[in-house]
Design brief:
Rossmann fold; 7-stranded mixed β-sheet; 4-stranded antiparallel β-sheet; binds adenosine-5'-triphosphate; binds magnesium ion
Length: 316
């Protein structure tokens, strides 16, 4: 399996500026993702996170650069890439099951009605909505609607799951439960995920890698934080791990100060946007401006799924 299953290659996005000329929201972004990897993106409002996600979804196009998914350049929307919206975006006249079945039928139009319904029901069960499968969106709570959105996205076996702040509109209790479920499902199914969040703890709990974006305009990927917490982490023990606070503090320091002063941070230093540094904050002796050797594809998959924590850190 390739460690470049998804490859963002030098993308920039500009819009016409009100007074003439143009504004570059972000520029020269490079990022690759391995199959089965969970990547979270964190950055201040307006740095272009949603625009990047829309480009990955094929709903927007970069002004320059290209995105490759499984050796094919993105040229528009595709049912290979599923988006989970913050606003649910369900069809109000269809039941929970009907909403999911609609997606399944769009992906596999030749399948029989029974096959489509079976596949849709499987996805509805996966997110724990079996008993509410026949209810319309208006009869569902916010968390249940979001579950339908997750079931719909997973039902089409996407190559990548794209999530734009998927839990931000939910109450804390529902948010936690859904995070637990999404994490469990993604690990069990080996789903590749690209998620935007403003919630540092959500990123730490869910993601294998956390991409830190600087402030716009002209935003960049400053670094890629490699999550040193063990794959078997749980909500109850994650904050007790010795690497948790170094990791959390590193991300918060970035958001509070480094994200807006990044250009001066790298002034006079060698900086290659094609290879944003991979940083493990649990190893503070490593400078963020000196890339850490990342394991190759086979090592990477093994380290994130199977290795005990000590071995995984050695691999980094
Ligand atoms: N169609 C457009 N025309 C002009 N500017 C746009 C357009 N779409 C987005 N922008 C600008 O691009 C920038 C990035 O927008 P984007 O929605 O990607 O930010 P974001 O990082 O997702 O922010 P947030 O965290 O608030 O969701 C913003 O400054 C926005 O005003
Ligand atoms: Mg956004």
């Amino acid at each position: 399996m390739s460690d470049r299953y998804i490859s963002i290659e030098g993308i920039s996005r500009s819009y016409p500026a009100p007074g003439g000329g143009s504004t570059t929201v972000f520029e020269d972004l490079w990022l690759s993702m391995a199959r089965g990897e969970f990547v979270a993106v964190i950055g201040h409002s307006g740095c272009g996170k949603t625009t990047v996600l829309n480009i990955l979804a094929g709903l927007d196009a970069p002004s320059s650069g290209v995105v490759i998914v499984d050796v094919k350049a993105i040229e528009g929307p595709s049912l290979d890439r599923a988006v989970i919206f913050q606003s649910h975006a369900l069809m109000p006249w269809k039941s929970a099951l009907g909403n999911v079945a609609y997606a399944v039928a769009s992906k596999w139009p030749r399948r029989s009605r029974g096959e489509i319904e079976g596949k849709a029901r499987q996805a509805i069960e996966l997110v724990g909505l079996g008993p509410a499968a026949d209810r319309k969106p208006a009869q569902l709570s916010g968390g249940m609607k979001q579950r339908v959105g997750i079931a719909r996205a997973l039902s089409i076996d996407p190559k990548i799951l794209l999530m734009d702040e998927p839990f931000s509109a939910l109450d804390a209790l529902t948010r936690g439960t859904l995070q637990d479920e999404v994490r469990k499902i993604c690990i069990e199914t080996g789903q590749t995920v690209f998620m935007i969040t403003h919630d540092v703890d959500e990123a730490i709990y869910l993601a294998d890698k956390i991409v830190l974006m600087t402030n716009g305009p002209g935003a960049r990927i400053a670094e890629i934080v490699v999550n040193p917490l063990p794959q078997g982490r749980t909500r109850n023990d994650v904050h007790r791990h010795p690497a948790y606070y170094p990791l959390r503090n590193h991300i918060i320091d970035f958001l509070v100060s480094r994200s807006k002063a990044f250009d001066s941070e790298i002034a006079g230093k060698s900086w290659d946007p094609r290879h944003p540094p991979h940083v493990n904050p649990a190893q503070p002796e490593r400078s963020p401006l000196h890339p850490v050797r990342m394991p190759q594809a086979s090592e990477s998959e093994a380290s994130s799924r199977d290795f005990p924590e000590a071995q995984r850190r050695t691999a980094l």
